[in-house]
Amino acid sequence: MKKALIIVDVQNDFCEGGALAVPGAGEIIPYINLLMEENEYDQVVLTQDWHPAGHKSFASSNDRKVGESIILNGVPQFMWPDHCIQGTFGAEFHKDLNRDKVTHIIQKGKNPEIDSYSGFQDNNHFMKTGLDDFLKYHDIQLVEIVGLALDYCVKFTCLDAVANGYITCLHFNGTRAVNVKPDNGRDAIYEMIEKGVTVLG
């Protein structure tokens, strides 16, 4: 069975000192590097949040405060600080992430009108990123997922992986949650297990 490792959004803006830092983000990088060192993956895919300046998911683009919610193109949208803007340091992958074995990069969130948490598609399920096509082209049946953040981009990538027919495993030690609300990370784990994601310790 061919397997892929999907590393979600390990970018400077989501790590310590970034515009949208996830608590403990730096702790997962050695773990992810070790996974790549100790396992033989047929493909290693990075997803990269890659927003144009003025993206509609930014609070600053809507004259709103960070943490508010609006309806954006028919779906609820949390208002984030400006982050992962194309071509900026914040959008770059963290320097400590070993990219020697990376075979493919998927950029998401490029449409200024709609956000894209999942590595597979945007939030209104209108535009695909090409990740599913890439995995199917390479006969991948099992995906292991790590990265940032557990309660947003990792969760939706896992759920879409299951929906697209992949055996889907989440490495709990390879992810951290934003926890806008204290239980978001825990609730995300429960939701993923319920939908068929295997959570590995």
UniProtKB/TrEMBL annotation:
Q: Does the keyword Hydrolase apply?
A: yes
Q: What is its EC number?
A: 3.5.1.19
InterPro entries per UniProt = Isochorismatase-like_dom, Isochorismatase-like_sf, Isochorismatase_Nicotinamidase
Protein name listed in UniProt? Nicotinamidase
Tell me which CDD domains the record gives: nicotinamidase
| Family according to the record | Belongs to the isochorismatase family.
The question of whether Hydrolase is a record keyword is answered with yes
Organism of origin: Chryseobacterium flavum
Indicate the segments forming the Isochorismatase-like domain, all copies.
4-189
Pathway listed: Cofactor biosynthesis; nicotinate biosynthesis; nicotinate from nicotinamide: step 1/1
SUPFAM superfamilies per the record? Isochorismatase-like hydrolases
Q: Which domain of life is it from?
A: Bacteria
Tell me the first and last residues of the signal peptide: none
One of the record's GO molecular function terms: metal ion binding
- Root EC class: hydrolase
Q: Which GO terms describe its biological process?
A: pyridine nucleotide biosynthetic process
Q: Which Pfam families match?
A: Isochorismatase
What keywords sit in the KW lines? Hydrolase, Metal-binding, Pyridine nucleotide biosynthesis
